[in-house]
User: Which sequence fits this backbone?
């Protein structure tokens, strides 16, 4: 158990800056998720903590111990890899026991503990098999077993679910979360999937081009994105971002679509952010909003539907309760308005958040 | 005739002409008393040649000499080759240049290599014994009890690069993740080498050993260029012995039977080795 601290950590390959002055604290026992598009430096950050990637400058500490420059084996971390990275020539039992064997635990004891770990992961019937005879999900459980057998100070997860199919991914996600909670070991989890990040994390760190774009609890990040990058990256379907101006409390898009925000934001150029859930649609015949839009595609998801709208050259997305879909058909004209208070204003130039919103 | 057989015909014709016919003719000769000096048609003698080959102590002695030579040469090539391959893999700069330079010995024809070492290592006029004498070491490379190891050393000099080439390709095809996982899991370099790298390299190792062993088994040029089988019969390898019987003593029928006995033994070894390999792969 330990707090992990990144202090001014940078990594570059020649002229290319991969990670730029990263400062990050992983509280003891927490699960922190690094999320961002590919190439944002999240995996590199994780690998630097593992010791698999040398650091260009800065320091990483696990607890009170600065581990910068230490070999991976001396850091007391355990890692789950995206493609499992099992030892192909060893059986499931030997794979799980490997970390104990590598650290000179007697063979019989190592295998005994491997058996009990395998038992807790439901792998008992597969102990003698080789990795290639296992399904992807089973391989990942073996990889998890190998990580937890040693009770390390820190768990590292490098996109552990991305090679699994959708259903298995959700199941394994829940299971991982339960294991992490039960063991209470500080964990760093890397993913490009914002939904995974939202559901798993105690703390969520959104990265962009080697820097932290925003960090906080998933709710903080979701409800008050710090900039347009985070706003667009977090949440599904994607937040509507509309360029326009504020005129006496009303937002007018560049193409003339008006939303009454009743904001006290001073007049000027802004980017308006509205989550699809907060873009309300008025059925034809009941339009009271000043803005209208034409319905494009309607994608029914069950209880709700994603409705694509076009309003004076803008393409917008709204999420509508299925029960409110009556009268809405493709190419119908509907009214659109923003749910009162549920909007985000960003500086047009810098993309930084303008309005402070309490959640 | 079907088109596909037509396409194969030229290859089959060439194969029959240059491999099939000599092979079958040698098989025929091995059942005759044919001598190079004979004028008329040879007489069929049945299995007499095989019988005398099997009971010929010199033949089996040559077999033993060859086996020792193969074990020493290939063993050293394996160890040295693996060490070089491992360090080349870590090399960061001038990789291509180093690698092509290391391969150079392979491109020299073996008889030239043999002749070169014959002079370099000659006890009277050789440069290397002279240099050794300079530091107080008196060593006759072709002396009794040493000549065979000197020959093996020449083989090592010329063919270790081949081992390096194969093992380097093998090492670079090992997936990186298990090695990284092993580092994180607490393995030291030696432990990882023993428990992960070597087992993952095993299929390549087997093929490399097999290829080199088969090649070393054929050793002839080094013997011919340096010791001619001496001192005594210490370096009389199976190929050299067969050559002597057939070409120098003109007993081609008997030499052919020796060649077939060697072929049978080698084929058995290959089949067993590949069976093993297949079984390990499917296990």
Assistant:
């Amino acid at each position: 158990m330990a707090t992990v601290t990144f202090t001014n950590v940078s990594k570059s390959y020649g002229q290319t800056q991969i990670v730029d002055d990263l400062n990050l604290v992983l509280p003891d026992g927490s699960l922190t998720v690094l999320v961002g598009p590919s190439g944002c430096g999240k995996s590199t950050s994780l690998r630097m903590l593992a010791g698999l990637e040398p650091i260009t400058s800065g320091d990483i500490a696990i607890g009170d111990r600065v581990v910068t420059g230490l070999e991976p084996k001396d850091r007391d971390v355990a890692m789950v890899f995206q493609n499992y990275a099992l030892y192909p020539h060893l059986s499931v039992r030997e794979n799980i026991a490997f970390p104990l064997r590598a650290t000179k635990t007697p063979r019989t004891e190592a295998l005994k503990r491997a058996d009990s770990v395998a038992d807790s992961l439901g792998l008992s019937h597969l102990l003698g098999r080789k990795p290639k005879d296992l399904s992807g999900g089973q391989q990942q459980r073996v990889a998890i077993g190998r990580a937890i057998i040693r009770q390390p100070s820190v768990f590292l997860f490098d996109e552990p679910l991305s090679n699994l199919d959708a259903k298995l991914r959700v199941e394994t996600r829940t299971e991982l979360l339960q294991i992490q909670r039960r063991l209470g070991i500080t964990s760093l989890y890397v993913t490009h999937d914002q939904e995974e990040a939202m559901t798993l994390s105690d703390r969520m760190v959104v990265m962009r081009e080697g820097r932290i774009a925003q960090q906080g609890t998933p709710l903080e990040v979701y409800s008050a994105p710090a900039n347009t990058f985070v706003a667009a990256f977090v949440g599904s379907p994607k937040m509507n971002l509309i360029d326009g101006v504020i005129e006496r409390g009303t937002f007018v898009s560049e193409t003339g679509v008006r939303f009454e925000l009743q904001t006290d934001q001073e007049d000027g150029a802004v980017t308006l952010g509205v989550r699809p859930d907060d873009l309300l649609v008025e059925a034809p015949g009941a339009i009271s909003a000043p803005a209208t839009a034409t319905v494009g595609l309607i994608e029914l998801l069950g209880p709700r539907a994603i409705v694509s709208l076009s309003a004076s050259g803008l393409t917008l997305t709204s999420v509508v309760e299925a029960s409110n879909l009556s009268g809405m058909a493709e190419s119908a004209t509907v009214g659109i308005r923003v749910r009162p208070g549920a909007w985000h204003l960003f500086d047009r130039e810098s993309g930084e958040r303008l309005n402070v919103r309490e959640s | 005739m079907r088109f596909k057989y037509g396409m194969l015909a030229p290859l089959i014709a060439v194969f029959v002409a240059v491999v099939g016919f000599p092979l079958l003719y040698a098989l025929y000769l091995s059942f005759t008393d044919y001598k190079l000096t004979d004028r008329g048609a040879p007489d069929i003698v049945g299995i007499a040649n095989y019988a005398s080959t099997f009971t010929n102590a010199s033949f089996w002695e040559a077999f033993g000499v060859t086996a020792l030579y193969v074990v020493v040469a290939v063993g050293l090539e394996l160890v040295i080759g693996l060490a070089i391959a491992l360090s080349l893999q870590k090399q960061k700069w001038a990789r291509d240049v180093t690698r092509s330079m290391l391969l150079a010995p392979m491109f020299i024809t073996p008889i030239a290599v043999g002749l070169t070492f014959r002079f370099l290592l000659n006890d009277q006029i050789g440069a290397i014994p002279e240099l050794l004498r300079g530091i107080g070491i008196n060593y006759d490379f072709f002396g009794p009890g040493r000549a065979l190891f000197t020959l093996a050393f020449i083989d090592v000099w010329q063919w270790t690069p081949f081992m390096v080439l194969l093992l380097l390709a093998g090492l670079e095809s090992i997936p990186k993740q298990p090695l990284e996982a092993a580092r994180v899991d607490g393995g030291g370099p030696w432990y990882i080498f023993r428990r992960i790298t070597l087992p993952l390299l095993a299929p390549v190792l087997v093929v490399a050993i097999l290829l080199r062993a088969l090649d070393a088994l054929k050793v002839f040029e080094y013997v011919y260029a340096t010791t001619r089988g001496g001192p005594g019969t210490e370096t009389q390898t199976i190929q050299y012995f067969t050559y002597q019987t057939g070409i120098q003593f003109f007993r081609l029928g008997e030499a052919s039977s020796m060649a077939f006995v060697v072929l049978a033994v080698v084929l058995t070894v290959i089949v067993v080795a590949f069976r093993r390999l297949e079984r390990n792969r499917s296990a």
